[in-house]
Amino acid sequence: MSLTIAEAAERTGLTAHTLRYYERDGLMRTAVRRSASGHRAYEDADLAWISLISKLRATGMPIRDVKLYAALVRAGDGNEAERLALLKAHRERVLEQLDEVRSHLGAIEFKIDLYEGAVHVRS
After folding, report:
1. What is the C-alpha to C-alpha distance for residues 35 and 8, in angstroms, rounded to an integer?
2. CA distance readout (Å), 72 to 3, 67, 78
3. How many domains does the chain have?
4. DSSP SS3 for 35
5. pTM to 2 decimals?
6. C-alpha closest to that of 49 among 22, 72, 68
7. pLDDT tens-digit profile of 39-72?
8. Do residues 28 and 54 make contact, with C-beta atoms less than 8 angstroms apart?
């Protein structure tokens, strides 16, 4: 199965511009195959990779780290320890963000409880 850039954009929820940027800026694991007419032909493996880097970006991984990760993957076997260290460091940042968001959520829930109590008293 291969998809055009428009189809890949629809499947991934990204724009065609973003997909071209990922390719141009060295974020893809491998070069996207081209059809005989020269158009991009996205495969399942491309979509899986795009999904991964989209998740990394959505969780705040800087572009430079995504580029580094992609370069390490492209380089092949032998650098797994570097990949692991990069992902573990990112996981730590994400866990810290989650703790912070949970704290903020706790403050919001506290206020909701107060207001619900006040509303029920008046009812």
Report:
1. 14
2. 26, 9, 9
3. 1
4. coil
5. 0.85
6. 22
7. 999 999 999 999 999 999 999 999 999 999 999 9
8. no
Q: How long is the chain? A: 123
Q: Is the pLDDT of residue 123 over 80?
A: no
Q: Is the pLDDT of residue 122 over 80?
A: no
CA distance 119 to 123: 6
Q: Which of 88, 22, 10 is nearest to 50 (CA)?
A: 22
Range of the domain at 12: 5-122
Look up tokens 């380089």; give the residue: 75
Q: Are 50 and 15 contacting, i.e. CB atoms less than 8 angstroms apart?
A: no
Q: What is the CATH number of the domain that holds 16?
A: 1.10.1660.10
Phi, psi of 33 (to 5 degrees): -60, 150
- Lowest-confidence segment of 35-39, 92-96, 102-106 by average pLDDT: 35-39
Q: How high does pLDDT run on average in the chain?
A: 95
What CA–CA distances, in Å, run from 27 to 71, 73, 108, 113?
A: 8, 10, 38, 45
